[in-house]
Amino acid sequence: MGIRGSRSRLPWNVGARTVILRRVSSEAWEKLKEWSREPEGVAIFTDIDGTLAPIVPTPDLSEVPEELRQLLSRLAESYRIVAGISGRATPDAKKLLGLEDVVYYGNHGFEILRDGAVEVVPEAMPYEEKVRELEGLAREVLELRGAFIEDKGITASIHYRNAPPEVGEMSKAFVKREGERLGLRITVGRGVVEARPPIRADKGTAVRRLVEEYGPERALFIGDDTTDLDAFRALEELREEGVLRESLRVGVRSDEGPPEIVSEADLVVDGVEGVGDVLRVLAGG
Length: 285
Ligand SMILES: [Mg+2]
Prior knowledge:
This protein is an alpha/beta fold. Helices cover 46% and strands 21% of the residues.
């Protein structure tokens, strides 16, 4: 009896919610169609891994489907800007997407790659020397002991996953001590300790910078993960400030993604295939 009662309530609630979601998303699809008629005023910002490239066991096996690459290449010709905004280092992001006309923003929001050149965001520049110094010290002290120092430009990553445990402890302590002395921000991840300039840089600051630089009236962001929420929020802020006339947050639903990627989105699509639908509408059909 009890089970029956709760079961009968469930479809009603789900039904009401579905109706609301459908109405919101049909408005968003209409908006996309409308935007596609005036592409020169529109910025297309997109995450790459999990959004354009399906998630695979190791990042070096990632691939962007050929159809999406062709669509993006077409969009880059008529839209104000098409930018791939990624956690990867920018040359890596470019290799994955393989398109010249796209702007790449990466390395935790510190780097832009366009027209063949990598630019470090100006606020981070004063720390470039300090990051180099830390990398040099880490090479002298930690590399011989089995740590791997990754050359990432404006940020430094010291990996100790494959080193003995005591080298891991030593790496963390060393990078924390020296990094703090140099005024850098230190974060510890899984098997890695990283040093970066102590300024705010993320997908949100990336979106803001590109909007201010390229001056679109409308902008959308497509993403699937936690770091993409910063970009969603930046779009909202820019619209509230009147910098953008309209914005659109496209969430890519997946089993591992955070719930906010759905709840904070204006339009939710399923996986890389759903992103293809968005790009096709932007391309005019
Ligand atoms: Mg992603």
